[in-house]
Each structure stands twice: as structure tokens, then as C-alpha cells.
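FAQ: What does the model actually see?

It sees only this:
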Amino acid sequence: MTPNAGYVEARLQAGRRLFRMWPLMSAVTFQNVTKSYASGGRTMQALKGVSFDIEEGEFFGLLGPNGAGKTTLISILAGLAHATSGRVTVRGHDVVGDYAQARRALGVVPQELVFDPFFSVREMLRIQSAYFGLRRNDAWIDELLASLGLADKADANMRQLSGGMKRRVLVAQALVHKPPVIVLDEPTAGVDVELRQTLWQFVARLNKQGHAALLTTHHLEEAEALCHRIGMLKQGELVALDRTSALLAGTASTMLRFKTDMPLPPELVVHARVTGRVVQLPAHDAADVERILAALRAAHCHVEDLEMGRADLEDVFLNVMAGNVPAGWESEVPSLPALAKAPA
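And it is asked to produce this:
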């Protein structure tokens, strides 16, 4: 080995040691974030000490009921609102102290349909590119248009597009500068199945290429299918945080589903999830199934289409929002012990 080669090898080894010493930088970090508003002479807390990280290349789902604080948290991340206290960073850049670099690393798809009615789709994407100093971006714009099903609408005025097509343009605008972190705030609200499938195929492809994604949605089947980890907000507090698979494993593994037009017996009502005629009840084992069926028979409750199925993320979500926290979740979120446990 030549002296020069020996020097290079020594430097490489030093670099490997340094890499092992320092952990990989998170894509997004929320550190004890609070947000308070003055309302009617009172102070309302929209966020109460929220802390979690999103890793590079991770698809993270942020769930919660309306008013839980999801959009407030995203607004703080995007620089549209300021936290009362705490710190938020994007790839190490503080969203307040280093806002230019933080925003350059973000692509945000908002809930609202916001567009300029005086430009075509392609013109909008070129203007958005110029905001980030990208003058020759047509190749990527063409790929976005094709991937999102907008190629035949490229020269159409924004006013001529349907709501679903406008939503696609918002997605393209958020991605036009190839941000390493993609934020999707209920991107499929009120859109058709075709757009949902097109969007998720494209975003999943970007995620596989290394882009981190933060998703808020009320379509929990989307979060279950896409997200590596899930965080749940309730009244401004983070009440669950874990891998999607671990959250699903922490609830009843099976559900008994059936249809009925009759009222359920009181002992089942408190545990039932009812959607129209469809009733779902948690059943851990065969003994639980027999107890449920015995209660239905005793109440002369006629049922049809009886089946067993796997518990899904909606079951987990409803349990958490009701304060029923399965064992093991407390290790992820320090505030969980304060929640009421489900009665045995």
C-alpha cells in the first residue's frame, strides 16, 4: 500500500468511527411544542408539550379528531404560525432561526384548495419553481404532470379544473422543488378513488427513494397501509406513538362483525362500534365470541352476515380516543400514564 493510499484508508476509518458516534439526523423534530391562543378573555392551549421525531425516509402518520391540533402543528412546521414555546427543526434547520433552509426542505400540501385563477397549470408550476430559484425545471414538471394525471391539463386555466384536479395541482406544487420532507395535510379529503390511488402510488415511490412524509388523514385505512409509525393527538396532547404494527398488536386481534336492525343488549352497547347496520365487537378468543353470541340470543337480537375479522387502525384509534391504552404504549409517550386505563 502506498503512503497516499494508507493516508486515504486512515481517513476513511476515522470517518466510519465518526459516523458511528453521531446518529443520523432526523428529518423533522418537534421538541416540547406548545401553542396557546387568547379566546374570549381565556387562554386556550391548542398544543401541550408535543415531542416526537420523524426519521429520514420515514412515512409518519399523525392522527386525531377534529380540533386535536394536527393542522396547528403543521402550520408551526411550515412557518405559518409560531409556537408559544418549544422548538421545531427540519433536517437540523430551526423553522424560526433558519427559516429559509427549513422551508426549502419542505413541500406542504394544504387542506384548503388555494390557487391563482389567472394562470395555467404549467405556469403555476413554473412560478412555484421560481420561488425556489429553479429556472430550468421543465423536465421535472413534465414528470409531475404525467405522474399525477395532469398532462392533458397542463395548459388549462386553474379556474377550469374540477376540485379533484385542483388538488392534484396542489400536490405538484408541493413537490416541484423535490423537497426531502413532504407534508400531506388531509390530501384526499373529498376526492375520488382514482386520485387517491394515483397520489399514493406517486408519494410511495418518492418515499422509497428516501423522501420523508408526514400525513394527516381521516381515512385511517390509508394511514394503516402507508405509515411506518403513527402518532395520535387528543386535545393537543400526544397520547400514542409507536410503529403501526405495534399499535395494531396492542388491541384485540380479532373483531366479530355482523349486521342487525335490532337494539343491542346493554352489556354489548358499551363495547360496540356501530356504523349504520354494521356492528363490530372486540373478541380476543373463542370464549369472548361465545359470550357475545349468548348475549345476543338472550336479547332475541336477530343478526346476519356474521363474520370474524382482524382489528384495524380505526379500532385502535377509537380505543385510544376513549382513553383505553394497551399495555406497552407508555414506554413511547411519557404522558400516557395520566390517561385512564380501561376497566378490567
